[in-house]
Specification:
By secondary structure, the chain is mainly α. It contains three helices and four strands, in the order ββαββαα. It has three domains: about 45 residues, no CATH class; about 45 residues; about 30 residues.
Length: about 140
């Protein structure tokens, strides 16, 4: 049987299969395969002369973008939760400070909880080490 010659006018891309066989495929076919991989579409296989399928491996651009978007959404949700927690904590501290300020105006000692007409005199005599900043309470 005589060998047949094929004339091809176009660009070929040389691929090496995992089995080691090098073969050429039309550049348009390889570009189509890579574009499908990057876009997250079904990737057509290119076969070596021994019949092994060759498809790009790894994460395509579309998959990478989806993963990045998911991570950013999770990060934003986590930051929102932290912000809400900080706001709730600030409201609680403000309420506590308001409550103590009202009690002090009414003459109630923050240490022993008794009411006095002259709270400042009581504090100076009975609780001289009291720190209104909160380190002794």
């Amino acid at each position: 049987m005589a060998a047949e010659t094929l004339t091809y006018i176009g660009e070929l891309t040389v691929l090496t299969c995992w089995c080691g066989v090098r073969h050429a495929v039309p550049a348009e076919l390889r570009d189509h395969q890579l574009r499908a991989h990057h876009n997250g579409e079904k990737v057509p296989g290119i076969y070596c002369p021994l019949g092994h399928s060759h498809v790009p491996s790894g994460e395509g651009k579309a998959e990478r973008t989806k993963r990045y978007l998911k991570e950013e959404r999770e990060r934003a949700a986590r930051l929102d939760a932290e912000r809400e927690q900080a706001a709730a904590s600030a409201r609680a501290y403000k309420g506590q400070a308001t409550r103590l300020r009202k009690r002090a105006k009414a003459g109630t000692c923050p240490c022993c909880k008794h009411t006095f007409k002259q709270l400042s005199r009581h504090m100076a005599i009975k609780h001289p080490d009291f720190d209104p900043g909160g380190t002794n309470s």
